[in-house]
Each structure stands twice: as structure tokens, then as C-alpha cells.
Amino acid sequence: MSGFVGAQHEFHDDEFVRGWASRFEPTAPRIQLFDMILAEVEKLGKADSHVVELGTGPGYMARHILERNSDVGYEALDFSDVFMQVARETIDDLCHRVTFTNADLMTKDWPAKLSKQPDAIISTWALHDLGGQQPVADVYARSYETLPAGGLLANGDFIKPDGTDWEYEPGRFSIDRHLELLREAGFKDPKSLVHLEQNTVDPTAGQNYACLVAVK
Ligand SMILES: C[S@@+](CC[C@H](N)C(=O)[O-])C[C@H]1O[C@@H](n2cnc3c(N)ncnc32)[C@H](O)[C@@H]1O
To answer: How many other CB atoms sit within 10 Å of the CB of residue 145?
Structure first.
């Protein structure tokens, strides 16, 4: 069996965004990814860590992390005002701990828009939407420049699994290639901690995502 894996999004359309957000369920493996990223943030061992999420979307990971760790400060970066409004509604009573930053990850200057230097840059299911390997490589490079020594980059994103006959949209590529791009950005020892919802036989657009982590 073979086919195409990818998705089209209307990030600035209110109806699309609200429909997408209501269909997105925080399933067990998705929560596992959030917990794994939170554990990496906590490993930094820094009180009051400043955590920046790239492509906060409806804010499910943000809410998950803010509820479980009362010390971190959070910066939610997105280029969609509509998604940002949904994130405000999801994060709700915890919004006072969040800085909302409108920036486009396709530009070079998004780090200059951050409110302060992050200790961790995290992301889930967002960077593949930049449309290819080069924009992801650019985000990895900007993240490396922006983080302090010892700072964390954690990217949980859709990948193209090894051994598949299916064609994938260009933003979804192999774990090995992600690790190569992270090394090229300057990170010494990037790792993939897990490959969740593995399916090479009849994959959907919501399956096959990895947790890629790198420390500067
Ligand atoms: C699937 S959502 C992320 C879900 C989120 N991690 C959560 O847990 O709720 C992807 C987000 O990436 C954002 N995004 C896509 N391309 C972007 C870009 N070029 N710059 C900034 N944000 C972008 C979209 O607007 C969307 O809000």
C-alpha cells in the first residue's frame, strides 16, 4: 500500500482554526510527548526557566506544561492571531504567566522579537508546516544562536518514518536528517528520544512523530 501523507492548513482563518483545535484530542501518546518535553525542561535544573514555544497553536502543550510546573515562565510564539486567541482561551487562568509574541518563523528576525533570552525552545507539530528541510534547518540555526550554553531545544514533530513506501510532504522528513540538521546548526549531541504512533503501512497525517532534543 502507498499514498501521500500531508495536510493543508488555513492558519489565519477563524473557522478552520477553531475546527482544527476542537478536533485535536490530547490522546495518550500526545500527552506522552508533552511530558517528555517537560521532563527535558526540568532537567535544566533552573528555577524560573524561560520557555519559548514555537508555533503554540491552540495552546495544548502550553497549558499542559504550565499546569504541571509552577516555576517556568512561558512565551507563546505564533504568526496566527486566530490561533493565538484560541491559545489564550485554552491557557485561560494561567495567561498571566505567558507572553504572547506574534512572529513568523519563516523570517530571520523572529529571535529579536522574543521578550528575553530563552533557557529552552520547544515546539510540537509545528515546524513541518514551514514546508521543507531548509526552513527547519534555519529555525534550528536561529535557536542555537539564541540559546545560552546549556540551553535546550526540543522539537516534537511529524517525521517520515524509515522503510515507508508512502510519499510525505517536504516538511516531514527522516529522524536522521533532523539530527544531521541539528548538528549542522551547532548542537553537539542531538538525539531522538522516541518515535510515537509509528505506522509505515497505512499512516495518517496525525501519526509518526518524534521527540528531537539537543542541548547547546
Ligand atoms: C499544530 S499547531 C501547534 C500545536 C501546539 N503545539 C499545541 O500543543 O497545541 C501549529 C502552529 O504553528 C503555527 N505556525 C505555522 N507556521 C508558522 C510560521 N511560519 N511562523 C509562526 N507560527 C507558525 C500555526 O499558526 C499553528 O498555530
So the answer is: 11
pLDDT value of residue 1: 67
**Residue numbers of the chain with a pLDDT score lower than 70:** 1
Distance 1 CA to ligand 1 centre (A): 30
For the Cβ of 106 lying below 6 angstroms from any atom of ligand 1, the answer is yes
| Residues found in the chain | 216
Å from CA of 203 to ligand 1 middle: 22
> Is residue 155 lining ligand 1, measured as CB closer than 6 Å?
no
> Does any ligand 1 atom lie closer than 6 A to the CB of residue 90?
no
Q: Is residue 52 part of a domain?
A: yes
Range of the domain at 172: 27-210
pTM score, two decimals?
0.97
Q: What is the pLDDT of residue 137?
A: 98
> By CB neighbour count within 10 A (0-12 exposed, 13-18 middle, 19+ buried), where does 205 fall?
middle
For residue 77, which amino acid is it?
L
- Find the 183 Cα to ligand 1 centroid distance in Å: 24
Q: Is 112 in the pocket of ligand 1 (CB under 6 A)?
A: no
In a domain, 19, yes or no: no
Count of structural domains within the chain: 1
pLDDT in tens, 27-70: 999 999 999 999 999 999 998 999 999 999 999 999 999 999 99
